[in-house]
Amino acid sequence: MPGTLKVWPDWPEFTSSKGEADPTGSLLKYKQEIVSINGQENIQKSWLKVCKELETLTDEIAEKGTNIIPEVKYEDMLNLSEEKKEELKKRGCFVVRGVVSEEQANTWFKDLKQFYLDNKSDISGWPEETPFVLRLYWSPTQLAARSHPRHLRLQRILNEFWHDSPTSPTTSPDPLSYADAVRIRPPKIPFPGLGPHIDAGSLCRWVDPAYRSVYDKVFAGSPEELDLYDLEKRKDAKQSMDGGYHSTVLRAYQGWTALTAAGKQEGSLLLYPDVKTTIAYVLLRPFFSPPESDKEEDIMDASKWKFDISSGWFPGTFRNESQRAAPGSHPHLRVRECMVNIPRMEPGDTVWWHCDMLHAVEVEHLGENDASVVYVAATPTTEINKAYMREQVKAFLDGGKAPADFGGDYSVDRNESEFKGWVGEAGILSGEEGRRAAGLVAL
Ligand SMILES: [Fe+2]
């Protein structure tokens, strides 16, 4: 690999021998189906185009590093020029500064920490030994962050980056408050569990017909025409096949709202700041095998790769997990150089990334203080999302239980409503709009 990072964490590599077993050949059939629809020639055409694009793109990312991630002040998001908006959409990630004031974020953090300490014996988290992604969904801080008027307004703006049919009665940019966990990450404890991955499912991108249709252009030889902001296509995509640890909700953008300051090497986020080419490459990769030669120049020469669907291996794909990528299995991405740190975050800042974006969380937190974020996404209104919200609000009203996406293997046998400091519905801001987003007004 050219110009490898001095330090690359011990994140897993993916090989066919460690891939998902395919005893019945069903994985192979998924590949064959895509080839029969699109033709080998088109898939090869796309492969060469995407790898060519990556040659210059990866140089640009490696050279600019963190500076390539756009930063916008909250106020400027309210009046974005078309040009700026296109830049944000192309990158697929950006920081929005000052969504709430530093003072507000500090208060939220203080409240959250107190809530955690007061109820610690009943709060589990991940990883099990040193939990810091806390299985908490309804603390006053989370309720307020999701429904704060400035936050909700931003969520709406981000949902509007996507387009649907003007006549579609079932979708809208009206934000929904997807209840996710919260993080209070203490310093000095390494955590390797979140290497490069893409959320919103994995194998289902190739398998579910509605989901696959989002990427038609990639398989049809025109990856440059891929539109990752088409809500009309994406709204029916099934992000989960057989359960597993997945968000079943379409999030236009995933997001972190910083409650504390954190910079590089403080448990921060790494992003691959070009969403379209990356996802196209990940989707095409299973249809090719590398040249016999292990010389770097041969491996990096896409024309030397063979079209090959003799096996059912999808590199880095395990159906019930997020899609993974690694330097060995996805060499043209040059992830060692192109996973770049987000800029330093201050309390009240937010960072957003498209649901197809490759991202990771730093292994090290070498700072001195807790690094805390609330996971607040921009979630548009769709039929699937509304159906989820109707269940989510039941969990909330039924004593503050864990929402369905977090219930599975992590079933929580306690009600947050019994916690000291519980405020329930009173914690939701923004009046009717906040209540609608939370699912408390009939959807
Ligand atoms: Fe993730």
Automatic annotation (TrEMBL):
Pfam families: Gig2-like (PF07350)
Protein name: DUF1479-domain-containing protein
